[in-house]
Amino acid sequence: MLNKKKKKKEPYDRIRPILEYLTFADSYTKRVREILKNNNLWITNEDVSYGPHTLLKLAYLKYYFDIALEIAKNYFKNYVFIDTFAGSGLVSIKDTEYVSLGSSLLALIFKSRSGTSFSKIIGVEIDENKFSLLYRRLNLIKEELNLATDIKLIKGDINKKIDDIANEINQRDYGILFVDPEGMEISLGDLSKMLSRSKSIDVILNQSE
Ligand SMILES: C[S@@+](CC[C@H](N)C(=O)[O-])C[C@H]1O[C@@H](n2cnc3c(N)ncnc32)[C@H](O)[C@@H]1O
Asked: What confidence tens digit (pLDDT) does each residue in 42-90 have?
């Protein structure tokens, strides 16, 4: 008798499609890249360049989105992604040709396996140029892909915008709060102010030395 047992996937087999998605090599994200290029919003010198570990961080984020939204859809109607250090929407990978979706753009276009997507993206960015790129990229992609996601982008220092963010979160929302700083700290007190708005917010904290 033939052994029909499925071959176990190696870790690279699992992460490869996620990396292709992030780096605009699959059919859905290739379309996003074309839209950005056609509107002169592809990678610029204003976008940051980070090492390859950035791809693993974003791959983890996408992996988490899929698990979290698949569970949340059974209990909640609205799903909010809160990006406290939002960046410009794109990240170039140092010493390579690769460009990756940044966290907020990833959250905007993300659809889980059952088609669940975020209802709202709240993003904060302090840098004027990055904020402007983020704003234009997210709104262009929303329009071109006809997405229903509500986009709230706030320009300024996260430490001074905690109340603005908290006011955007409703008690019945399911949220993912992503904290991805670049060396600066955010106080636990400030985090808890946002977390107290809903009982169902997961925190993903990227801490680098
Ligand atoms: C590591 S990057 C974020 C990358 C982004 N999460 C992504 O994946 O695309 C950190 C960002 O935080 C911004 N930033 C630094 N200090 C900030 C502050 N006090 N408030 C808001 N944004 C800040 C920086 O300008 C930078 O764009």
From this structure: 999 889 999 999 999 999 999 999 999 999 999 999 999 999 999 999 9
Residue whose C-alpha is closest to residue 171's, from 107, 90, 80, 93:
80
Residue 131, both tokens: 């904020």
C-alpha 86 to ligand 1 mean position (Å) = 5
Question: What sign results for the dihedral spanned by CA atoms 48, 53, 57, 62?
Answer: positive
Tokens 């708005």 belong to residue: 197
> Is 157 a pocket residue for ligand 1 (Cβ < 6 Å)?
yes
Cα(153) to ligand 1 centroid in Å equals: 13
Q: Domain 11-205 adopts which CATH fold?
A: Rossmann fold (3.40.50)
CA–centroid distance for 167 within its chain: 20
Mutate to test the pocket of ligand 1, among 81, 85, 131 (most ligand atoms within 8 A of CB): 85
Domain ranges, ordered by start, for the chain: 11-205
Cα separations in angstroms, 185 against 35, 36, 94, 136? 35, 32, 24, 27
pTM of the model: 0.95
